[in-house]
Input
Amino acid sequence: MFSLQKITGIKMTQTQKVAVLLLEDGHVFYGKAFGAVGTTAGEICFNTGMTGYQEVFTDPSYSGQVLIMNNVHTGNYGVNIKDVESDSVKIRGLIGRNLEERYSRYQATDSLDAYLKKNNIVAIEDVDTRALVAHIRTKGAMNCIISSEVTEVEKLKALLAETPDMDGLELASEVSTKEEYELGDVNSPLKVAVLDFGVKRHILQCLVDRGAHVRVHPAKTPVSRLKEFNPNGYFISNGPGDPAAMPYAVETVKAILAEEKPLFGICLGHQLLALANGIPTFKMHHGHRGLNHPVKNLVTGKSEITTQNHGFGVDPEAVRKHPGVEVTHVNLNDESIEGIRVKGKPAFSVQYHPESTPGPFDSRYLFDDFVAMMK
Ligand SMILES: NC(=O)CC[C@H](N)C(=O)O
Output
């Protein structure tokens, strides 16, 4: 019989199940099963934030990704119905050091384990996440598979080989709303048309809180339909997958730019604004995911601590050479491009997440800037 204790020294109780994590480069990690029993595969990535796991797990930009939480304890304040960024858990799978069943928080309504089971998310705990993250940081992004039903590595290898590569993958239209919907005061003179590629709930909240009447549109909505709303400005949302695999969205952003109305893009929306200006995007080595990434605003000279979640970036050389686009924000850790604006047009975007949730509110001024531009 397969004995985890013999292989790894991890102690199991009678009711615990073994889970296996296999990386694309052949590395195997054993641990305990958590959440739903099953098998799941996707791109492995890590988030360095110490809190806000429920907001992270429900962020649609994580679709197709198996997430490692760097923090040693995840789950200890449970889950509730409020701390969500969309209607369901969007990560493909979860890896942790200690995924806690016991929780303590007066607003909590359930445990992380029950929540993952309800959302059919397979997880593995008791993994040496420090070693695993150090490995990903060195080797770069790759696919992985977790299973609590198949323990034979050869079988898992065959299943993993069928998992598509994130590079070139279009995922935004899968998580986008299928139907248009409206939020905020319908009589407000401030109207924002949102192009939804997997928008986080708190981005829409930040617009509504500033008095906007928002109409959210499916990813492939033609620009003619967006214009029918007669908005004061356009918002291009965050979302999962490779921006370069979204020519339909690049065309929409180009058409919006031609209209010369205010445009604000976040994360995937930022990458699409770059692509619409002929600036390429690229797959990063292992991306940025966390809530303490320092960014410098080159216009004001001030720095801000930002929330991030991206695996693609805007080509720094191409953007700096571009005569019509200005770099407004840079990452102070690796000097990657964090913000741009189009010269002579009211169009700007950031690679990070100014709505935060979870994270500090340093960057929420960008929503005020957008509203001021529209007024
Ligand atoms: N949060 C996002 O919008 C992510 C954008 C894109 N999918 C990336 O990984 O870079």
